[in-house]
């Protein structure tokens, strides 16, 4: 099913039984798996990959640029190109207004079975381990790695480049 006012970029692939609701945008060469549901207003940027049987709620943004800036000689900041993508594996649920940044290089990865609440921000080059659950208003800075089966409570903040082992519970 493709709803009203959906935009699908050149070379995008949409799997069997996928449901793309009104106002969604799928960028060029993006891949949407079988039986995946994109609710209204979801944005999937170019070259991002979403697995099978995923659910992405309204206005989530998958693949926007990471926060990549470097100071220059003029004491200003220059943009670092974000040329990677986002890979979301099978059976992932993503809440409304959640944002997952594309990698600077390589991929930001959300492993199979992950459940993300509403209003979560995941930075560039992060990896979220299998079957991890993350409550609303969590921020995960770039290049953090979260283990398998972790539980992250609402409003917790995870520093960039931090690695969290499997089966850890984080409370704010």
Describe the protein in words.
- It is globular and about 45 Å long.
- It has 172 residues and is mostly beta strands.
- 0% of the residues lie in helices and 35% in strands.
- The chain has strands at residues 7-8, 13-14, 19-20, 25-26, 31-32, 37-38, 43-44, 49-50, 55-56, 61-64, 69-71, 77-79, 85-88, 93-94, 99-101, 107-110, 115-116, 121-122, 127-128, 133-134, 139-140, 145-146, 151-152, 157-158, 163-164, 169-170.
- The strands form four sheets. It has an eight-stranded parallel sheet, with no helix packed on it.
- The chain is built from no helices and 26 strands.
Secondary structure layout:
Blueprint: E1 7-8, E2 13-14, E3 19-20, E4 25-26, E5 31-32, E6 37-38, E7 43-44, E8 49-50, E9 55-56, E10 61-64, E11 69-71, E12 77-79, E13 85-88, E14 93-94, E15 99-101, E16 107-110, E17 115-116, E18 121-122, E19 127-128, E20 133-134, E21 139-140, E22 145-146, E23 151-152, E24 157-158, E25 163-164, E26 169-170
Parallel strand pairs: 1-4, 2-5, 3-6, 4-7, 5-8, 6-9, 7-10, 8-13, 9-14, 10-15, 13-16, 14-17, 15-18, 16-19, 17-20, 18-21, 19-22, 20-23, 21-24, 22-25, 23-26
Antiparallel strand pairs: 11-12
How do you describe this structure in short?
By secondary structure, the protein is an all-beta fold. The protein contains no helices and 26 strands. The N and C termini lie far apart (40 Å).
Gyration radius, in Å: 16 Å
- Counted by DSSP, the helix tally is 0
Tell me the span between the first and last alpha carbons.
Answer: 40 Å
N to C succession of SSEs: EEEEEEEEEEEEEEEEEEEEEEEEEE
Sheet/helix structural class: mainly beta
Q: Which shape, going by the Cα principal axes?
A: globular
Mean pLDDT figure: 98
Tell me the number of strands.
Answer: 26
Runs with pLDDT <50, length 5+?
none
The fraction of residues assigned to DSSP E strands is: 35-45%
What does the main sheet amount to?
Answer: 8 strands, parallel
> What percentage of residues falls in helices of 4 or more residues?
under 10%
- In the sheet with the most strands, the strands line up as 1-4-7-10-15-18-21-24
């Amino acid at each position: 099913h493709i709803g009203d006012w959906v935009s699908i970029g050149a070379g995008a692939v949409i799997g069997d039984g996928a449901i793309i609701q009104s106002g969604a945008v799928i960028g060029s060469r993006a891949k949407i798996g079988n039986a995946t549901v994109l609710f209204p207003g979801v944005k999937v940027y170019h070259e991002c990959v979403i697995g099978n049987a995923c659910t992405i709620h309204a206005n989530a943004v998958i693949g926007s640029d990471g926060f990549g800036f470097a100071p220059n000689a003029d004491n200003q900041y220059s943009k670092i190109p974000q040329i990677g993508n986002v890979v979301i594996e099978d059976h992932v649920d993503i809440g409304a207004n959640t944002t997952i940044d594309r990698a600077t290089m390589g991929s930001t990865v959300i492993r199979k079975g992950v459940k993300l609440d509403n209003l979560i921000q995941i930075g560039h080059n992060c990896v979220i381990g299998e079957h991890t659950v993350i409550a609303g208003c969590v921020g995960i800075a770039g290049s953090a790695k979260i283990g398998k089966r972790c539980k992250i409570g609402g409003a917790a903040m995870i520093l960039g480049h931090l690695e969290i082992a499997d089966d850890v519970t984080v409370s704010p």
